[in-house]
């Protein structure tokens, strides 16, 4: 069935021989038989890198091949995986990491490992090493825990088996249930026989596993080889039965790290092609059409209209924020945003301590890997985290993705997503979670973030300035008086009394704010989007509230050092600095919590070693 190793050293075994024997004895041979033969893959002779004489082609990117080469020497602990990009007609190799190539196009069977959570790195390394072993280039002779080796490889191979057979027999199959049962038995045996050794000296059982990975990947795998790894395995075994099979899959999802997972139903287009799902986009799946407007059809909307329910609850964050914006004469700025039912929320069960939904905000240009926003409890407050595919992404990297409106209006294309832009993006995501009426408490956000109203207003001002002529216009005074009449239960709350109580100078200051959009009459209920093609600057529009002379007067006052203009500029700077300070405080709080957790873990280990 497979290549056999020749081992002559006492105490040293070929791990793959043990794997083959176990699979034959427990009836799992079909897992290995389903793998493509090494001869069916593309191998390229190579002598540029000191390692295996052949390189394995695993994918492609931007017209270049992605190749894998094993370097090192005899013994599993010495073999290292190296991944490079190679131009078609030369050997000018560029080294990359496993994570760097996740957005590329993988070949079969490697593409099936993209849905493995944080273990994508290790599983891809395992499968590549398996093929190099079958090709006769590397051995796997070592001493160590055979059960651990078999358990990990069973999960990897079962993942590939599932991906290969999903289009024909679907995820729910009798054989897949048997594989899941076998993997659970393997896990129980492993945890019972090996837990003490791994808890006291994680390095004993992980040094060989870590050596299988690229150097840049060690930080990803270390957690899986320590107490956290055992805890995650135990927790996933206890709770996996509560998850729907359509989202968990079979064997692979029991070991998925919730920190680095995305909604499995729409994780990437490579998975969508297997499950006949489509990304949350327009009916014709054109991403260009959703960059400046929201992207789901009425059939795909997973969020019921929550606005009426929230408006009738005066204690909700939604009602309080609407009242605040009305008092600040900024309520019209919400018309620049798509309604919450025009965006796409997805059920999520993979991230603990997070809200039950996650928000789709865009996708990768080429791979169509979705970008999801989660609201997760961290310490005593919630934070916004972002995932692309199976990996957590910092907000600073999202500018390289194609975010939909209005999320692509919170940052400058020149500077990207800096700390101020990150604060605006987080505020905007929180606003949509508030508007969706999906939070565990309707007063959650304001209880955690006291200055959220001012930060929301600052974010809306910035979005309006980015939209330019396409932005909603502020209502004229006559419109405000008309809006003061009686309203029905489903209409917007009447804030005319609050508006009349405002100081008149405050209104004038707000109207002359430098970052406000061009002012004009507001058409009730209109949700205008940024469509420069359909709204040219020279096109006639509603009556302009601000004349050219007014604009020139503002510019003149700025040049002459008018105190009112200076005050507005200072206010904008102060808001940006407050946003930055809030981000730094959150990062410091999480750092202190993580430090305390690690110190406590080290104290426990030291007590066991005494």
TrEMBL record:
Residues 231-249, 263-285, 293-305 have a biased composition (Polar residues). Residues 207-220 have a biased composition (Low complexity). Signal peptide: none annotated. The keyword Coiled coil applies. Residues 477-491 have a biased composition (Acidic residues). Residues 207-315, 468-563 are annotated as: Disordered. Residues 574-608 form a coiled coil. Residues 554-563 have a biased composition (Basic and acidic residues). Keywords: Coiled coil. The keyword Mitochondrion does not apply. This is Uncharacterized protein. It comes from Massariosphaeria phaeospora.
